[in-house]
Amino acid sequence: MADPAGASSPPLVPATGEEVAEVLACALRHDERGKPRRGAAWEVAAAVLAEQLAAHLERANMVAVKKPPRPPHST
């Protein structure tokens, strides 16, 4: 029987609330094309909203996971 897909992949680890907030803030600071939104208000609004969203996810017992960091490439 063949191994299930992902059996050889490294285990997922829980992300901290700060990591979730950082990723959410980055997503809020950029549009759907990945270009930065214009205006200084986006920086402040993204940070505040990301912290509130991360706190709400934690209160709702949601778990975010991430892959462990990749090893550095050889040059």
Give an overview in words:
- This protein is mainly alpha-helical.
- The protein has a domain at 14-62.
- The protein has helices spanning 17-29, 41-59, and strands at 13-14, 65-66.
- The termini are far apart.
- The model has no long low-confidence stretch (mean pLDDT 86).
Helix/strand layout:
Layout lengths: L12 E2 L2 H13 L11 H19 L5 E2 L9
Antiparallel strand pairs: 1-2
Helix pairs in contact: 1-2
Helix content: 40-55%
Q: How large, in whole angstroms, is the Cα Rg?
A: 17 Å
Derived structural class: mainly alpha
Which consecutive residue ranges, at least 5 long each, have pLDDT under 50?
none
Mean pLDDT, nearest integer? Answer: 86
- The arrangement of helices and strands along the chain is EHHE
Give the termini distance in whole angstroms.
38 Å
Instruction: Give the biggest beta sheet.
Output: 2 strands, antiparallel
Number of E-type strands: 2
Range of strand content: 5-15%
Task: Please list the strands of the largest sheet in the order they lie side by side.
Answer: 1-2
Q: How would you describe the shape? A: flat
Helical segment tally? 2
